[in-house]
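$ run holo --ligand "adenosine monophosphate" --emit tokens
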Amino acid sequence: MLSTMQDRQLGLPLLLRHAHRVNGKSTVISHGRSTRHVATFAMVAERAGRLGSALEHLGYPRGTVVGTFAGSTQEHLEAYLGIPASGRILHTLNVRLHDDHLEYIARHASDEIFIVDGPNLERFCSIAPRLPGMRLLIVAGKDAPDVPPELSCDVVLYEELLLNGTPEIDWPEIDEREAAIICYTGGTTGLPKGVAYSHRSLWLQAMSLCTANAVGMSCESRLLPAVPLYHVNGWGLPFAALMAGADLIMPDHSMRAEHLLALIDEEPPTIAAGVPTIWSDVLDLVRSRGRADLGAVRTICCGGAQVSQSLSDAYRSMGIRMVQAWGMTETSSVSAVATVPRWAQSEEDRLHYQASQGRVVCGLEVRVASLEGEVLPSDGTSVGEIHIRGPWVTGRYLGADDQSEFQDGWLRTGDVGTVDGDGYVFVADRAKDAVKSGGEWIPSLALEEAIRNHPAVQDVAVVAIPDPRWQERPGAVVVLRPGHVSTSAELSEWLRDKVARWWIPSLWIFSDSLPRTAVGKIDKRLIRQLIRDGVYS
Ligand code: AMP
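-- output --
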């Protein structure tokens, strides 16, 4: 028997109607280093409507792909809403990608229109001649430099374009399975791979984020997402804020610690989010200023890379709950969140769950399998590749037939670790980064965590280095804290009672910084290559 329920479609039109009619008084604060704009959700929804209808008037049909090359600004947010809600498809390009990758993804996604803001315009114009499919360039924001006259496409200013639109808020009905937003993976292991989120997947993921087991957002919250909109849609956090009616503080073009701390003081957010590097920089700044608080912030959702125990503890001592989250571009970001269960009474238990990558959120399922594909028990001890499936997990890559990263409807994440009987995920390594020494596996994330706990160490990356006897041995590239000194002998000695003797790195390299990918993750592939090429020695 079919249900008697109405067959209304989930998606961006429904979200925008809610943001306009119900949460209309909540605000978006776009705060740059020297600029500050405040707009209500109602105003943002109307301007998003103008954008969609202006493109309609210009004759760009539904399904047109619109690339954005911009910071975390109000205009970018309007595009993030108005493009998909009007039936077009948004493609947020990562401004930190290499030119060749930008060209590749813009062509691959068939972007025809680009919305580019002032600070990114010069760079974009240098790549634009390589994009023959480009028909319209929309320049957003004040003080944009001039567009070179040789660019052979129409050019319009964003504000002028909006004047040609109507604040159409009677958004179209869109099939919830249609593509709404395209994102590409970072491309560390070859060409970036595209994922097309549907209206339904965006909606469900935003609802999941709002729940107390995830980020826990309501109309009492003020959210500071220190996550660029081009990194997995800003983890979907802006959609969740619009859904919950939480004020949204957009950091504009800077994610630097000084700027974030200024926002924390001037716009008092209650919830913040971002990768560990960002929150580690903020912590250093807070300490250097002799402060012991982060204003009104009570929760920081931290993920995208392993969150160290020392980082969460430091925030905890300031009365802030730092929750680790795990996810990927392919899973629409946050898929597990390390909330500590009520049965964890002892400090040891609390630390155990806090150090996990998180408990899988309701709606998604995880399992562990050997690299050969045999499903292993979710018992917290069987180590294998983590598989995941669910309504906001991709089933394939855009324009690709290759199904090697999928197995029986599950996505093979490439993360190696365990899942326990309560759905807590523990990631020990990326399959490609694993160190196998004499046939035994050394979990690089656990070894990094141990090294990072040394007071002189600011950051560290452990990679496999070839070894004639053991096939592979761990090598550690260490960044020391400013003003601190240490040596390989001292670090090795210090590790002796903390990890198994054979885990102690055979090679120590001291460096000023670690190479990072376009989304700010440590680029271990490049580190391995630099070691091979003798650049690091
Ligand atoms: P991306 O698609 O760029 O977001 O990268 C996804 C990958 O980042 C995951 O497959 C993990 O390898 C890594 N990652 C994300 N969150 C965490 C976390 N909390 N701890 C360890 N690794 C993480």
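-- notes --
DSSP finds 15 helices and 27 strands in the chain.
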